[in-house]
Design brief:
The chain has a single domain, classed as Response regulator (Rossmann fold, 3-Layer(aba) Sandwich). Helices cover 46% and strands 12% of the residues. It contains seven helices and four strands, in the order βαβααβααβαα. A four-stranded parallel sheet has the order 2-1-3-4, with helices on both faces. α1 crosses α7 and α2 crosses α7. The longest helix is centred in the C-terminal third of the chain and has 22 residues. The N and C termini lie close together (12 Å).
C-alpha cells in the first residue's frame, strides 16, 4: 500500500503522521509506503515545524529530513489511499480528482477510526506546544485504526 497524508502547509500534522506511520509500519514488518503534501505554497521546501520536530524527537522519531511539498494530480495515481486532515483539505483534494477512481482513494484520516463521523485532526500551528502533543495523540490512535484496517 501507498498512503498519502495531506494537510494545509505540510509542516505540522502530516509530518507527524508520516513519521509515526513509518515507525508503526516498520514495527510490523510492512513494506507499505507513506508520504505527505499540502496545499499552501508558502511552505514549499520548509522542514517540519520546530514544535512538531520536538514532539516527535521526544517519541524517538526523527522527522528532520521532511520537506514540505504541494499536492499534485499525480498523487492520485501514485497512491492507494489519500487521507486529509480536515474537511477543507478534503474538499481541495476532491476538486482535483479526475474521476470516480480518484475520489474512491480519498477520505478524512479520522474516518478510519470513526467511520462517517467526519472528525478533523486539529491544526496546532497557531497554538503552543501542547497542541502538538494533542495532535500527536489523535494521529497515533487514528494510525492504529489504519493499520488494523489496511495492514492486518
Amino acid at each position: 500500500m501507498k498512503y498519502m497524508m495531506v494537510c494545509l502547509g505540510n509542516i505540522c500534522r502530516t509530518p507527524i503522521a508520516v513519521g509515526l506511520l513509518r515507525k508503526k509500519l516498520a514495527e510490523i514488518g510492512s513494506s507499505s509506503e507513506v508520504d505527505s503534501c499540502g496545499f499552501e505554497p508558502h511552505h514549499i521546501g520548509d522542514p517540519a515545524d520546530t514544535r512538531a520536530l520536538k514532539v516527535m524527537a521526544e517519541k524517538g522519531i526523527d522527522i528532520s529530513a521532511h520537506r514540505a511539498r504541494l499536492f499534485h494530480p499525480d498523487d492520485f495515481k501514485n497512491n492507494d489511499l489519500i487521507f486529509a486532515m480536515d474537511t477543507f483539505i478534503l474538499a481541495d483534494i476532491k476538486r482535483m480528482a479526475k474521476n470516480e477512481d480518484d475520489l474512491k482513494k480519498v477520505d478524512l484520516l479520522l474516518n478510519v477510526q470513526y467511520p462517517g463521523m467526519n472528525c478533523e485532526v486539529p491544526d496546532p500551528y497557531y497554538g503552543d506546544a501542547g497542541g502538538f502533543h494533542k495532535t500527536f495523540e489523535i494521529i497515533d490512535k487514528a494510525l492504529d485504526a489504519l493499520i488494523e484496517k489496511y495492514e492486518k
